[in-house]
Design goal:
This protein is α/β, with parallel strands linked by helices. It has one domain (57-255): Rossmann fold (3-Layer(aba) Sandwich), CATH 3.40.50.150. It is built from seven helices and nine strands. The chain is globular, with a radius of gyration of 28 Å. The structure holds S-adenosyl-L-homocysteine. The site of S-adenosyl-L-homocysteine (SAH) has 24 residues, from strand 2, helix 5 and strand 4.
Length: 268
């Protein structure tokens, strides 16, 4: 073998070995990348109203125009939040396509998410502004709490049915509502440690106004509450605390809510 040929063979061997090493390195790099990606995707997926593809934008706008503005809701802040909160994220998957009809929908355990117009009306009647403190009795899906949170309020919400409370808490956390605080309890007694409140909204109907709620209201504050017989129609009231011992009630009309229960939910 000539000296030139030997040099050529050695050179090509070096090239092959070096090439192989580079190939291996790049493969290893790819593998590292994949492990990084899979580590990321193992983290719980965040469903936020802003990143989720908004399949329902048109339906929601329609709901706001025909079900809320056309029915007389005129607070610009309330109309804006009804446009922003994605109601379909608060209902079971099988009802998502109905989420922007102006109707209540089942959320399990015999409970319902309220009709969007009623949510807007009750929110408007609270007469609250950003930064104030609101108590909600009957978290249900968490939709009303999200609407209040979007208004910039500090929201304390109580749900008596434990699995609903857990689901709503997780949902509100995933959606990033940091100023909404939850408790699984009987809301009849309010949330004395956080009282007094600028406003209280009750989204299940008792047959009388719970006295603890009136006591936990600031002077000048408002309770919006349906009151009436179980299973029938109730009257929606706005009660203003005018002074320490003076309240004024105004009827907002007939409504139909699930009852305010005292025992939660028993598995049948
Ligand atoms: N605001 C809810 C809808 C409420 S449905 C939403 O936006 O989805 C009424 C809710 O009140 C139900 O989830 C029911 O379990 C709850 N509830 C009934 N009695 C209660 C009580 N004593 N304390 C707290 N929650 C109660």
């Amino acid at each position: 073998m000539s000296k030139r040929l030997a040099v050529l063979i050695v050179l090509s061997l070096i090239i092959v070995i070096a090439g192989g090493a580079i190939f291996l390195r790049s493969r290893q790099h790819v593998v590292e990348d994949i492990s990084e990606v899979s580590q990321e995707t193992e983290e719980p997926q965040k469903v936020t109203a802003t990143v989720e593809p908004d399949l329902y934008a048109e339906a929601r706008e329609q709901m706001v125009e025909t079900g809320i503005i056309a029915y007389g809701i005129d607070s610009p802040e309330v109309i804006a939040v009804m446009r922003r909160v994605h109601r379909h994220l608060f209902v079971p998957e099988e009802y998502q396509r109905l989420a922007y009809e102006n109707n209540p929908l089942p959320i399990g355990y015999g409970q319902t998410i309220s009709q969007p117009y009623i949510v807007a009306l009750m929110t408007q009647e609270l007469g609250v502004k950003a930064g104030e403190k609101v108590l909600e009795i009957g978290t249900g899906s968490g939709y009303q709490a999200a609407v209040l949170g979007e208004l910039g309020l500090e929201v304390f919400t109580i749900e008596i049915i434990e699995p609903l409370a857990n689901e709503a808490e997780q949902r509100l956390e995933e959606l990033g509502y940091e100023s909404v605080y939850m408790r699984n309890a009987d809301g009849y007694f309010g949330w004395p440690e956080e009282a007094p409140f600028d406003a209280i909204i009750v989204t299940a109907a008792p047959d009388h106004v719970p006295p603890p709620l009136l006591q936990q209201l600031k002077v000048g504050g408002v309770v919006v509450i349906p009151v009436g017989p179980v299973g029938g129609f109730q009257e929606l009231w706005r009660i203003t605390r005018l002074a320490q011992d003076e309240y004024q009630s105004v009827s907002l009309g007939g409504v139909r809510f699930v009852p305010l229960t005292r025992a939660g939910y028993d598995d049948p």
